[in-house]
Design goal:
By secondary structure, the chain is α+β, with helices and mostly antiparallel strands. Helix content is 35%, strand content 21%. It has a 5-stranded antiparallel beta sheet with strand order 1-2-3-4-5. A hairpin with a 2-residue loop joins strand 4 and strand 5.
Length: 234
């Protein structure tokens, strides 16, 4: 075949079309497996965040509450042998604060110790933060995790420490850390709702919105501005 610009364009187009088709086929073949893997990880997290396993415990009930476009799911985890309560596993997104790339979703465990409710563990279910920065929230024993695990939930202030909160931000990742704190706050609100300790009536919601800053909504209108001099505000 004689080489020409037209021939090269046709060949390039054919190669691109074939590559796109192969990518689509691979995606179609793997999407169910990926979804199944994500569901399995989520179900496993329900047990691990309250310090147990599927062999020792079971889910007594899953309850989901929808706020706007967001779902908060509370799972009551009980011992398999006698149905006694172990704790609550709450799947919650960062509702009022985005991460650097997107919202994050956590599984947070709550257990009773005496008269207190303790944050037993936190697992990150989804995040798209920058590797080496915000994505460090996936690392075991990171500063955010250390800030809350084992702490009394009612005593936490759901903000980073430089803003008067309880959460030690990841280095160079203020925005990601704010989103993490907000997701833990959302999870705690889910726990309070599930246990009847949170007033979720229309009147209470309207009152809360009246107390919000002027023009604020349940979106990023509540997002604080970047800290001056923060070289990497992710």
């Amino acid at each position: 075949m004689k080489s020409s610009l037209k021939n090269m364009v046709v060949v390039l187009f054919a190669i691109t079309a074939i590559a796109a088709l192969l990518v689509a086929l691979v995606n179609d073949m793997t999407k169910d497996a990926i979804a199944a893997s994500q569901l399995a990880a989520k179900n496993a997290a329900k047990f691990s965040v309250v310090g147990t396993t599927p062999e020792e415990a079971t889910i007594a009930r899953d309850t989901t509450r929808t706020i706007g476009d967001f779902d908060i799911t509370v799972s009551i985890v009980v011992r398999a042998e006698d149905n006694s309560l172990i704790g609550y596993a709450v799947e919650a997104p960062s509702i009022t604060k985005n991460g650097y790339a997107d919202r994050i979703t956590l599984m947070v465990g709550f257990v009773k110790e005496g008269n207190d409710v303790i944050v037993s563990s936190v697992e990150v279910l989804s995040q798209k933060e920058t590797p080496g920065l915000g994505a460090n929230m996936m690392n075991e024993g990171n500063s955010l995790e250390r800030s809350v695990v084992g702490k009394v939930a009612a005593e936490l202030i759901f903000a980073v420490t430089k803003e008067g909160g309880s959460f030690d931000a990841l280095t160079g990742s203020t925005i990601s850390s704010r989103a993490y704190a907000n997701a833990v706050e959302t999870a705690y609100a889910g726990y309070l709702w599930a246990t009847g300790a949170l007033d979720t009536s229309e009147e209470a919601i309207e009152e809360a919105m009246e107390d919000a800053p002027t023009g604020a909504s349940m979106t990023n209108d509540w997002e604080p501005e970047a800290q001056e001099g923060d070289m990497s505000n992710e």
